[in-house]
Design a protein that fits this description.
This protein is of the alpha/beta class and 370 residues long. Helices cover 34% and strands 16% of the residues. The protein is built from 13 helices and 15 strands. Its EC number is 1.4.1.1.
Length: 370
């Protein structure tokens, strides 16, 4: 198969879809890899490294899309890429369709085969291609939250871990999945007073067993959230419903109950966000303030640490990419239920129920196209 790796052009996105190590493995399996010039530079991988790995460097994004049968990316295509996508072309990347209707309609119109990292799902309901970036984003949410709690950045002026004789910051984590667990670990490690909420009692029991003594667990519901937000300094939104829009757990009216300078970090923003007042921001302009509450809503948080993120992502995606390239997408998805669940839009049809429901579109069962 002919595989293309374009340069990411989303604002301040420095990751790349495949590392040179990944290129070597794809070529060993008999495939050709075409990488756009400078695609890996932001992650620390020069064109020379890709050439040594066996890839062919193409000068423009147009040539990469025109040449490739399968495109491996990191982030969803943006508007300037839509017309480059060909009918039947396989796109293997994060899409987060349910949070952005224009992208969904564009991919339907282009009749591409869109296999989304975020909905590839194992039998145990885990999301193997979302996990590495969720780990990065969860840990980063505390780094960024701690920074924006500083007074010059309009935060409360509180040190996350406190010092002897002064209490630490109170951190509230909404969601006990991969993002929430990593956020809680980082916050606890810095000495914060952490509370993590989830609706799954079994998960809360597990977290209660593994977390240090400065992490408390509570059942998540609106009453509990309203009770806790006035006393917390940093609130992390870490809720995920695979392939669907995240629910609003923090509503607009709750902001008035928060202390001035409270910081909200919505890691779920690329799935629509779990904080009603959040809207996607960029690393260039990451925050905004509503009712004296600082909102950090960067939609590609791991893009700020691309060297770590790109390697972590390729570690997870490469085995699936090899399956798709070796067998072709249709056979690979027929053979692997994990990959089949990754299909969202295929040849103009929406085949993932969460996406169809988000925009009231016609749903086509995926088995009918395999």
């Amino acid at each position: 198969m002919i595989i293309g790796v374009p340069k990411e052009i989303k604002n301040n996105e420095n990751r790349v879809g495949v590392t040179p190590a990944g290129v070597i493995e794809l070529i060993r399996n008999g495939h050709s890899v075409y990488v756009q010039a400078t695609a890996g530079e932001g992650s620390g991988f020069s064109d020379e490294k890709y050439t040594k790995a066996g890839a062919t460097i193409l000068p423009t994004i147009e040539e990469v899309y025109a040449t490739a049968e399968m495109i491996i990316k990191v982030k969803e295509p943006i508007a300037s890429e839509y017309n480059l996508i060909k009918e039947d072309q396989l796109l293997f990347t994060y899409f987060h369709f349910a949070s952005y209707e224009p992208l969904t309609h564009a991919m339907i119109e282009r009749k591409a085969v869109c296999l989304a990292y975020e909905t590839v799902e194992r039998p145990d309901r885990s999301l193997p291609l979302l996990v590495p970036m969720s780990e990065v984003a969860g840990r980063m949410s505390i780094q960024e939250g701690a920074k924006y709690l500083e007074k010059p950045l309009k935060g409360r002026g509180i040190l996350l871990g406190g010092v002897p004789g002064v209490r630490p910051a109170k951190v509230l984590v909404l969601g006990g999945g991969v993002v929430g667990t990593n956020a809680a670990k980082m916050a606890a490690g810095l000495g914060a007073d952490v509370t993590i909420l989830d609706t799954n009692l079994a998960r809360l029991r597990y977290l209660d067993d593994i977390m240090p003594a400065n992490v408390n667990t509570m059942m998540s519901n609106e009453y509990t959230i309203r009770e806790l937000i006035p006393s917390h300094d940093l609130i992390i939104g870490a809720v995920l419903i695979p392939g669907a829009k995240a629910p609003n757990l923090i509503t607009r009216d709750m902001l008035k109950d928060m202390k001035p300078g409270t910081v909200l970090v919505d890691v779920a923003v690329d799935q629509g966000g779990c904080i009603e007042t959040c809207k996607p921001t960029t690393h260039e302009d990451p925050t905004f303030i509503i009712d004296d509450v600082v909102h950090y809503c960067v939609a590609n948080m791991p893009g700020a640490v691309p060297y770590t993120s790109t390697q972590a992502l390729t570690n997870a995606t490469l085995p699936y990419a090899i399956q798709l390239a070796n067998k072709g997408w249709k056979q690979a998805c027929a053979d692997s239920n994990e990959l089949k669940l990754g299909l969202n839009v295929v040849n103009g049809k929406v085949v993932y129920k969460g996406v169809a429901e988000a925009f009231n579109l016609e749903y086509t069962p995926v088995d009918s196209i395999l």
